[in-house]
Each structure stands twice: as structure tokens, then as C-alpha cells.
TrEMBL record:
Annotated Mg(2+) binding sites: S283, D345, D346
Reported function: Catalyzes the formation of phosphoribosylamine from phosphoribosylpyrophosphate (PRPP) and glutamine.
Protein name: Amidophosphoribosyltransferase
Keywords: 4Fe-4S, Glutamine amidotransferase, Glycosyltransferase, Iron, Iron-sulfur, Magnesium, Metal-binding, Purine biosynthesis, Transferase
Active site positions, chain numbering: C1
Record gene name: purF
Cofactor entry: Mg(2+); [4Fe-4S] cluster
Family, similarity comment: In the C-terminal section; belongs to the purine/pyrimidine phosphoribosyltransferase family.
Catalytic activities: 5-phospho-beta-D-ribosylamine + L-glutamate + diphosphate = 5-phospho-alpha-D-ribose 1-diphosphate + L-glutamine + H2O
InterPro entries recorded: GATase_2_dom, Ntn_hydrolases_N, PRTase-like, PRTase_dom, PurF, PurF_N
Species the sequence originates in: Anaerosolibacter carboniphilus
Co-factor note (free text): Binds 1 Mg(2+) ion per subunit. Binds 1 [4Fe-4S] cluster per subunit.
Length: 455
């Protein structure tokens, strides 16, 4: 998911800014979109299934008037893909109204949920984020920042949160900093966003990343920071591999440069003789440029992407995913015929994409197709907000590299090593989660089979 928060009592049309910001975060979730605005503690909102552009009309944006806005684009990991599960979540409790947007996934949500239900609490959605809202509401006798801290002390998992209540905009990043969140400055206010690429659209100046275990409270046009938990940094390395936009900077590292580094390192780890390097657009493009630079094999275009088809992975079921690969990519026959190709993709999860593409390239006359993957084999499920399937559907968990090579029909197959990936992001590779590759989770996770907590 993607979240945005804008503080700006002096800003006219704050919902319009939230809309543009969400647009820049669209790649983080395409199922639903929503904006909530806060005017003197009164919250109005609009959310619907669909892309940002489909959900909001001018009329709707005009109606959302306020001093603070938060927005959310959703990509479901827990809870089905229904409008009731769209965010921001808006709840009314004794302490007033709260709107909350959550990127991440709680690993102990069903436990807390059961506990709250035993006390008669009613849930209206099947998303884990509602647990956070209900916990906050329980501590209604306290000031909001204390109530939030109380709630946070109960939950485990990944969360980048934007919350508005009263005159405040609040941002929170979990103690591992698994999901990104950063702070920017605009004329007359401040912005919080999942990725810094949203700041460019808003003409905001990047101030800094929110720290792992930090809560920021923006009020009276000032930013106050509270460290509510000790930092145990484990930013998701998959953000760099696939999820984030290349023009974002996360925890001080450019996503673009890390992808290019990854391509270079991959070329060192798995060199091959070939005539041309091509990418699976768009997610493999930057890494392919790095691979080409390092290997001195020219980069060329072999696949053309239909710009109007969404991200294939972010489709809730397998049938949709298969169809969208075909809708999305077409081979540039005249440029690949008779050539030995290196095909670069960012990741192999189920293997659907690679198998389809190798088939297409061979059918169009490619002489050889050498697949190079810019991340290690995905062997373990993610419990922190990236919808990798359960282990039996992860092609890398149940097959050897040679078996995968045969399955996808490639002439050779090479994956980036875990060390290579870590090095491509940070020189020392510290402070990153790589559990889906290594199984080394930054916290205790539910047993396999228990992954979809509310499904
Ligand atoms: P597969 O077809 O192997 O299941 O999917 C791999 C493709 O899905 C890659 O090309 C990658 O770009 C894309 N992808 C999209 N979203 C995600 C995601 O959330 N996680 C992973 N691992 N890959 C994704
Ligand atoms: Fe990211 Fe993988 Fe860790 Fe999940 S398990 S947070 S996808 S690095
Ligand atoms: Mg891809």
C-alpha cells in the first residue's frame, strides 16, 4: 500500500494535493484509493475500489475541504478486496474522530482482534488496520499521542501509519522500519509519504526519513518527534528490488542506483556470452542497464509494454495474473530474431511471468534466452505486507535452480546472491530485511498456513 498525509491549514484545496500525491504512489496499490480530510476535528472522506484517477472526480475533491488530509492506495495482503476494506479507516470514538492509513501487515492482529471481540468490540472490516484504530479508541481517556503509543505497544508487524485527529497529523514507522515513510516540507505545511517520489509532484522539499520506532506529530505547523520504541532497523529489501519507484530515495539510498548496482553485481556473479541485454519492463529495466554496463553487452529493447495495464503481481488471483502478462507485454520480433539474449527481470515469484516471456521470445526467433534475476530466489513467505504466496506456490521454495530453468525453458538461469543484493542497497548491507530470501525474519512470525490471518 501507499500512504500520504498533508498538514496545511493555510493550504487551499488540500484534498487536491493529496490526490496528486496518491497518484505518484499509485504503483504501491491499485485496488482501492481513499482520501480523508480533517477540519477542526471533523472528518469527511471518500474511498472506492479502483485507481486514484477512477475513484476521484473534481466534484468529490472539491467536497473534501479541510486543514489536514490523509490518503491511501491499497494492495491487499489481509482482508479481501472489497470497498469496506478500503482506507483511510475513519472511526468515531469517545475522544473524537480519527482517520488512519496503514501500509504494512500486523502479525498478531487476529489475536488482538479476538481479545477485543471478547470484550464486545465490533469490527466492520476484515483488515488488520482496524485493530489499530480500535486499540487507540480503547485508550480514549489519554491524549491522542499517548493513546497511539499504548496501541503500538500491543501490535507487532510492519506499519507505516498516517493518522489525523483533532488538529494533528501523525506519522509512525514500526520499530523495524519495514515499510518506508518520509517527511517533506511544502509551503504552508508538511507532507508525509511512503515514498519521496510523491514530494516531487507536490513541489515539496525532502526533509528526512521517519526513523524506525519514531512517531512524528505535526501541529501548529511544527514537527515534534517521539521515539516510542528502540530502533531495530530492517527495511524491506524488496522495496528496492521491485516495489518502490526508481526515482524514490529510501533511508538515504536511491532506488534507481541500487537497482543499477544490482544489475552490475549480477553480471559479475553470472556472466554469459550474448548479443543483447533486454529487460522485462518496467521492473527489470534499471537492473538491465547495470548488467549491460558491466558485461559490455549492448542493452536493447525486446519487449514492449502496454502502458495501460497495471502491475501483474498486484492482481488478486492467478488467472488474472496470467491474462495480464499477455495483455501487458509484446515481443519486438525484428530486434531479437536470431540473437542470443540476456533477459533481466527483478524477481521470480511464482514463475508465471518468466515462463510466458521466454516462450514468447523463443517463438519470435530468439536463438538463446539466458535469464538473469536481480534478486535471490524467493523461498519464504512475507508476513510484512508484500503479498508473496504461501511457500508451496513459491517456485524458488520447492525447486532447485536447474528445475526452475527447465520449467521456464531458459538456456541458463542465474539469480543475484543475497550478499549481492544487500551490497547493491547499502555498502554494508546492514539494516535490511531479506527474510523472503533467507528465512531470517526480523521478528517471530505465524506458522505457515496461518498467513492470511482474516481469510
Ligand atoms: P511471477 O510471475 O514469477 O509470480 O512474478 C514475478 C514478477 O512479478 C516479477 O516480474 C515482478 O516484477 C513482479 N512482481 C510484482 N509485484 C510483486 C510483488 O509484490 N512481489 C514480487 N515478488 N514480485 C512482484
Ligand atoms: Fe520485504 Fe521480503 Fe522482508 Fe517481506 S520478507 S519485508 S518482502 S524483504
Ligand atoms: Mg516484472
Amino acid at each position: 500500500c501507499g500512504v500520504i498525509g498533508i498538514y496545511g491549514p493555510e493550504i487551499e484545496n488540500i484534498s487536491q494535493l493529496a490526490y496528486f500525491g496518491l497518484h505518484a504512489l499509485q504503483h504501491r496499490g491499485q485496488e482501492s484509493a481513499g482520501i480523508a480530510v480533517n477540519k477542526d476535528g471533523k472528518i469527511t472522506y471518500y474511498k472506492e475500489m479502483g485507481l486514484v484517477q477512477e475513484v476521484f472526480s473534481d466534484t468529490v475533491i472539491q467536497r473534501l475541504q479541510g486543514d489536514i488530509a490523509i490518503g491511501h492506495v491499497r494492495y491487499s495482503t489481509t482482508g479481501e478486496s472489497f470497498v469496506t476494506n478500503a482506507q483511510p479507516l475513519v472511526v468515531h470514538y469517545k475522544g473524537g474522530a480519527i482517520a488512519l492509513g496503514h501500509n504494512g501487515n500486523l502479525v498478531n492482529a487476529n489475536q488482538i482482534r479476538e481479545e477485543l471481540e471478547d470484550h464486545g468490540v465490533i469490527f466492520q472490516t476484515s483488515i488488520d488496520s482496524e485493530v489499530i484504530a480500535n486499540l487507540i479508541a480503547r485508550y480514549n481517556a489519554m491524549p491522542i499521542d499517548e493513546a497511539i503509543q499504548k496501541a503500538l505497544s500491543r501490535i507487532r508487524g510492519s506499519y507505516a501509519l498516517v493518522i489525523t485527529h483533532g488538529q494533528k497529523l501523525i506519522g509512525v514507522r514500526d520499530p523495524n522500519g519495514l515499510r518506508p515513510l518520509c517527511l517533506g516540507k511544502i509551503e504552508g505545511g508538511y507532507v508525509l509519504a511512503s515514498e519521496s517520489c510523491a514530494f516531487n509532484v507536490l513541489n515539496a522539499e525532502f526533509v528526512r526519513d521517519i526513523d524506525a520506532g519514531e512517531m512524528v506529530i505535526i501541529e501548529e505547523n511544527k514537527v515534534r518527534s517521539i521515539r516510542y520504541a528502540e530502533e531495530r532497523k530492517a527495511l524491506c529489501s524488496f522495496e528496492f528490488v521491485y516495489f518502490a519507484r526508481p526515482d524514490s530515495i529510501m533511508d538515504g539510498q536511491s532506488v534507481y542506483l541500487s537497482r543499477r548496482n544490482a544489475g552490475r553485481i549480477l553480471a559479475q556473479e553470472y556472466p554469459v556470452e550474448a548479443d543483447m541485454v533486454i529487460a522485462v519492463p518496467d521492473s527489470g529495466t534499471v537492473a538491465a542497464i547495470g548488467f549491460a554496463e558491466e558485461s559490455k553487452i549492448p542493452f536493447g529493447e525486446g519487449l514492449i509494454k502496454n502502458r495501460y495495464v497495471g502491475r501483474t503481481f498486484i492482481q488478486p488471483d492467478q488467472k488474472m495474473r496470467e491474462l495480464s502478462v499477455r495483455l501487458k507485454l509484446n515481443v519486438l520480433k525484428e530486434n531479437i530474431k536470431g540473437k542470443r539474449l540476456v533477459l533481466i527481470d527483478d524477481s521470480i515469484v511464482r514463475g508465471t511471468t518468466s515462463r510466458r516471456i521466454v516462450d514468447l521470445l523463443k517463438a519470435a526467433g530468439a536463438k538463446e534466452v539466458h535469464v538473469r534475476v536481480c534478486s535471490p530466489p524467493v523461498k519464504f513467505s512475507c508476513y510484512f505486507g508484500i503479498d508473496t504466496p504461501t511457500r508451496k506456490n513459491l517456485v524458488g521454495a520447492v525447486n532447485s535452480i536447474e528445475e526452475i530453468r527447465q520449467m521456464i525453458g531458459a538456456d541458463s538461469l542465474g539469480y543475484l546472491s543475497i550478499e549481492g543484493l544487500m551490497k547493491s542497497i547499502h555498502i554494508d548491507g546492514q539494516g535490511l530485511c531479506n527474510a523472503c530470501f533467507s528465512g531470517d525474519y526480523p521478528m517471530e512470525v505465524p506458522k505457515e498456513g496461518n498467513k492470511f490471518l482474516f481469510e
